[in-house]
C-alpha cells in the first residue's frame, strides 16, 4: 500500500527501525530516535543495492517518488544510480574547483602589484564579473558570456573600465589555459566588440608632491633591474618612450655625460643631444654590467638583439598601480615641461629644445643639437637635484631655489 503524508506523520518511533514501504523499491526508514530516511532498494548486475533519497520532511513524499522514478529510468538505460550520483557529485566538485572565480582569485594571488592596484582589480572582478560568471566552469565560458558581462559595464557609461575588465578576464583565461583548466581564451574573440575608449591626451603627474610619490614607487619597483633603471631614467631624461627603449650603448658617453641620439631615431629626423645629470650617469653605470656587453641599453627580456617592449615602462607603471588616466610613458615629458617652466622657471626655449621640439631662432633657423648646451646641462642637473628633493621629502614640498643663470 502506498504511503501518504498523513500516515508518515502518524507513524511513531519504536525500539527498532520501522520500514514504511511506498512501492517500486521506495520506503521510509523510521529510526528509534525519530529520524525519517528515504531509501530506494534496487538490483544492478545481480547485486542488491540501496540509494539514499534524503530525509522527511525536507524531502517530501512527492520529491522522493520523483527521485525514485529518475533512478528507475537510469536502471532502464543500464546505468547504476549510485555510480551516476558519484560521478555527478565529482563533476560538481571539479566544476566548483575550476570555476572562473576560483581561477581568478588564484591568478590574483600571484600578481605582485602594489596593494592599491590589486584592490582595484579585485573590486572590478567582485562587482562586475563574479556575480555573472564566477560560478561557471572556466572551460565552459564563451565569448558571448564575457560580452554580456562587459555590456553591463558599458551600459553605465564606464567604457574604459569595460575594456580594462575584459583585458583582465583575458589574462585570467590565459592563466586557466596554462594551468590546464581551459583549452582556449574566448575573450580574444571580442576584439572590436566594444566601442573604443574615449581618446585622451597623454596623462601625466605634474603636482610636485605626487611626483615625489611616483619616484619613490619607482625606486621600490620589484620588477627586473633593467625595467627599474628605465623607469628611473624616464623622468630624468624625459625623452620619448621609443627613444628611451631604443637607446644603444654606442650612443652614450659616460665620461662626458652625454647621450647622442641619431636623427633616424628622432621624431623630427634631427640628431638630439641629451646631457646626463650625475644621477643619470650613476644609473647607467649600475646598469652597464648587466647589459653593456650588448647593443641595447634596455634589451628585450626575450632576446638581447631587440630593445625592450614598447609596453614595458607603461606595464610597469600599471603594475605599480598608476592608472591610464593618471600617468603614461609620455607623461614624464609633460611632467618635466610643466615643472621646469612653472616651478623652476627655466626659459621655455631651453625646455622645448631639450624636449626635441621644433624650436627656431628669431631668423627662422632650427637650433642645432648643441644649441644652449651649457644652459641645458645646468637645467638637466638642476632637474635631477629637484627630483631627488621631491623623492626625499615625504611630508611636503618646498619651492626649489635655483642658482646661477640657468
TrEMBL record:
Domain Tyr recombinase span(s) in chain numbering: 201-385
Organism (species): Lysobacter arseniciresistens ZS79
Signal sequence residues: none
Protein origin, superkingdom: Bacteria
Classification via Pfam families: Arm-DNA-bind_3, Phage_int_M, Phage_integrase
One GO MF term attached to the UniProt entry: DNA binding
Keywords: DNA integration, DNA recombination, DNA-binding
UniProt record, GO biological process: DNA integration; DNA recombination
PROSITE patterns: CB, TYR_RECOMBINASE
Family: Belongs to the 'phage' integrase family.
InterPro entries, A to Z: CB, DNA_brk_join_enz, Integrase-like_cat_sf, Integrase_catalytic, Integrase_DNA-bd_sf, Integrase_DNA_bind_dom, Integrase_recombinase_N, Phage_int_M
Stated name of the protein: Integrase
Gene3D superfamilies in the cross-refs: 1.10.150.130, Integrase, DNA-binding domain, Intergrase catalytic core
Domain (Core-binding (CB)) ranges: 98-177
